[in-house]
Amino acid sequence: MDKLTKSHKTIVKDVSSKGVVVLQISQFNKYDADEDRMLKGAFTKTFKDGKQVHLVDHKVGTSTFVGLPIAKDAENLIIDSQLNLEKTVAKELLSDYAFGLKHGRSLQHSQGFVPVKYDKNEKGGYDFAEVNMKEYSTVLFGAESDTPIHAIKDADSAFKYIKLLEERCKFGFLTDENGILIEQLITRIKNILTEPSIDTHKNIITEADNVHFNILTEINKLEFKL
Predict the structure, then answer these.
(1) What is the enclosing helix (H) or strand (E) of 111?
(2) Taking the model in full, what pTM does it have?
(3) Do 56 and 89 share a structural domain?
(4) Disulfide engineering: 50 pairs with which of 46, 126, 155, 223, CB 3.0-4.6 Å?
(5) Last residue of a domain, one of 144, 159, 175
């Protein structure tokens, strides 16, 4: 098998001002969307012998390399990741972690790995008994169930998301470039609310019993997501 990336609901357990983020990177014996699951012990060897790196969105490069693990717990899949706060991208990421914890919205993570030992399971997916983990990535609110954009189903939830974006602009470290992108996103969401698209209008008319606007479809077209 080639390298795979897998996303599970992850937990950020702690964030320090020195840039150490303590996170649970995966869960054992939990089926994912592909009906695959990690078996107990799958990370034991790779956590001991491997040299993983912390990336953003699985993008390999100096601009997305943000940190290294300084401690790894293969039994509980917990990594203490030291962010390189000499880099702007890492400083902004640390601020995002702190902001997410403040609002109860943990940033999400997934890992890139090469399967070593695996078998088909009864659901048609794979059970991974051993993997060679290459990297773990922060994916900004990447798991669907925890992504704020997926919670936007009507005008009220859209306004709550706008408020969250506005608070992020005021919170901690944020580059001018991303600040501008967030402001543009706020403007476009407001435009969607006040001037629904033709598709949105059709949905409202043809689904009279469903008061939800088709905001999600429109917002998913936007390039920047918190």
Answers:
(1) strand 108-120
(2) 0.67
(3) yes
(4) 46
(5) 144
